[in-house]
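Researcher: Going back to the complex we discussed earlier. I've cleaned up the inputs and rechecked each line, so this should be the final set. Can you rerun the prediction on the complete assembly and write out the structure?
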Amino acid sequence: MIRDYTLESTTDSIPQVGQAAKSAFANRAPIVNDFSITVATKNGSGSQTSNAVLLRALFKMGIPVSGKNIFPSNIQGRPTWYTIRLSKDGYIARRETTEIMIVLNPETALEDHQNTAPGGVFMYADDITLPARRSDLHYYPIPVKELARTYEADPKLRTYVANMVYVGAIAQLLGIDLNEIEAALKFHFKGKTKPVESNMQVVRAAAAWAAEHLVKTDPYHVVRMDKTRGLIMIDGNTAAALGAIYGGVSFVAWYPITPATSLADALNEYLPKLRIDPETGAPTYAVIQAEDELAALGMVLGAGWAGARAMTSTSGPGISLMAEFTGLGYFAEIPAVIWDIQRVGPATGLPTRVSQGDIIAVYWLGHGDTKHPVLLPGSVYECFEFGWRAFDLAERLQTPIFVLSDLDLGMNQWMSRPFDYPEEPMDRGKVLTAEQVNATKGFARYKDVDGDGIGWRTLPGTDSPFAAYFTRGSGHNERALLSERPEDWENNMDRLARKFETARKLMPRPVIELTDGAEVGIIGFGSTDPAIQEARAMLAARGIPTSYLRLRALPMNDDVTMFLAGHQRIYVVEMNSDAQLCQLVRLHSPKDATKVRPANHSDGLPLTADWVYQEILYQETRY
Amino acid sequence: MITNGTLTDNGTAAKPTFPAKPGVNIIGLTKSDYKGLESTLCNGCGHDSISSQIITACYELGLKPERIVKFSGIGCSSKSPAYFLSRSFGFNALHGRMPSVAQGALMANHTLLGLGVSGDGDTGSIGLGQFMHLIRRNLRMVYIIENNGVYGLTKGQFSATADIGQELKYAGRNEFPPIDLCRAAIIADCGFVARSFAGDPKQVIALLKAAFSHRGTAVIDIISPCVTFNNRDDSTKSYSWGRAHDERVNDFGFVMSQEEIIVDYAEGETKEVELFDGSKIVLKKLDSSHDPTDKQAALRLLTKAHDEQLFVTGLLYINGDRPNLAETYGLVKPLASYQQDKLRPSRESLQKIMAGMF
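Model: Rerun complete. Updated structure for the full complex:
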């Protein structure tokens, strides 16, 4: 995961804090807005607040940032790390190295000490004992407990606000504007003045202490920039929830599961503010916490069948439980939106770590011949956009639509341009009114009258004696009547295949960046985008220009075929162990299969540009 | 709401239109307007008898078929919704998962009347969890269990409601006690729990009519003998056992809210219970020791019957105090009826949220 720098550095000369260290590093050039900060704490200690505040303060200073929470599957007491990357050049992928290590957890102190990059900063609670100091680090012990006592409001909360001590200390050390810390606290506490003031009290005390007692020997500096003006910072799950709300979601059923829970939480937070019918004062939505994921999707299908815009959100294990209902939704042709915030599987796997390992599972979820349109958002912006677009696609195509996000995209904070209001009117699909069915004295629910494989449907409650039909998962003919006739079965499956071709045309097209003369193409999707973008710059600098196709949906279309045809070697970058998308790409265009190479990696952590760069470089030079 | 069969969106009562013409009900439909496709179940199946009672109850209540939605799971019982109310929408869901589909559909349009038909395997085994949670949430729907104690479509395995010690040709001896779905329903706080017998049309019809007026989930467990796989005389789910061991706990009349209540009970104690929509049931206690508004009494009665391998029929427990799911969620108009103007918040609201995300 992270290099052990103690193997590369000497530990025999032990510089003292402050002055002694100063001389050893005196000639280092300043490093400004281009490094990573990792905070090591215990889960449940309240460090999430301080980390979020630190991240947003830097963002408000105009510096491109990203934050990655590497947390355990645990409520309290297990180690957790939060890494903030500052990048003046705007690269926001996770990095392998951490220059500034802030350690409040004695349990991991040794490991964290080893993992700090040479020349880096090691700031730690002064009651943590270190076995031996490295000669290549700058040490700043902080009296965290003493400083936390400056918190007057409630002694019981001292452990919690202890985290604000490192915020104040590191702010002083690096030059983070305390006014922006205060602004970030206001954001975090939604403007409530009391917690903002009491936290700021601790931050100021720690900053004052640091100013008085720490002598800065390290070269790291934060300087205000202007690169985040007009941007927002948000997590993908909140973006998805907002997208769903502006997409008119009216029914949600879900079951708690990491890392999808915060999507439902965001729905519960924003729906009451945005979706009350002004005429009646009644909600235009219902959110039900189901007894399990089977029931969650069952409810969603029931609601979608009856005409609501219905969705659920889950993760891998929930997807497994939804397999049977997904097949029913596909075969009975019911609109539904299913968000999969991917974590690491198989089995319980790594519930709090990221992967892209569900892409094959959701694409073909269900027994028998099933296949589903899948949206692949690659940013929080697309989480919002696909959040509303998914309902239009589901109702147009009358089928379950999957949206494949992941833990990194869903739960971490990302910079983004503000979300654009949906300009397209809602597409409610092919629904017959009572007057329409009265005029024809009935209809054939599963007949392909328009040649696109999509039949017309009616909604329960339609006031016509000719409106009703019987929905079932068993074999049926065009008039929705039970049928076991071979030709009825085959005709129906042929029509579903035609419908899938319609889906292929309607799904968002990939984003393609072609480079003149590039022999190498890269295909990726989802949250790996920043790592791929950065790796492309590194490869280009190394003399390997690349083109890039970011897939935004399944099934794949001709854009992919042409991209494959236009390049000599195509690397499929993804976070799973079986190179799942690589397999799908090869299937999509078998004649190009030998040109398509896997570049897959899955260890539970977000992909880094370093890894992508090294992997492609290795394969390029080796073969 | 049932208002002379006309279900209105906001629950206001439509004006009754008495008297009706002969051969048609109060909304002018004939009984054949309530029929379904021809049954494909075995001749003499108790389920077909129940289908007939559903047709009669809905016809006599004057329910508009378009306002009823049928739900079922998987199994012989769950096939039956195709055999009644062809003018009603139907959803044949997954095995044991009908409750979740019904919850979604009836939350999307809570003004519709739900009618679920399930079996003992569908409810008592694979679907026990969803059954309990449906009741817990108190979705307004009629939930019929066509209970024969056996798996028919897979040719005769025991279900979870099969009698202990029972022997079947295919499955051998059943070593486990049955799950009493009425007791389970009461424990899950169901406000309408009844048991009947497929061979007792009068009681089934009366219970169905009352169930349609219940505020939340109304469970009717109907012993429905399987003529093919479970009709041995020693089975409690056989016709002969049912006729010999059926102990009625009450007799009652159902009175629609628009009708004048004329109850002529010459003898025996009577008890009047007002239902959700203002209609009433008048209970005549044949066994005066049972008060159907007394939950503990209902559990005691069922426990005793369970131990004695009797089945008591009638309305076992009723309580309409608990709000149903749509009421809990404060729904007014059907969620499915909202269009873009109500579903998509304003452009300004998004701009405001975005401005707050810096």
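Model: Worth noting: DSSP finds twelve helices and 15 strands in chain B.
Researcher: Good, that matches what I expected from the previous run.
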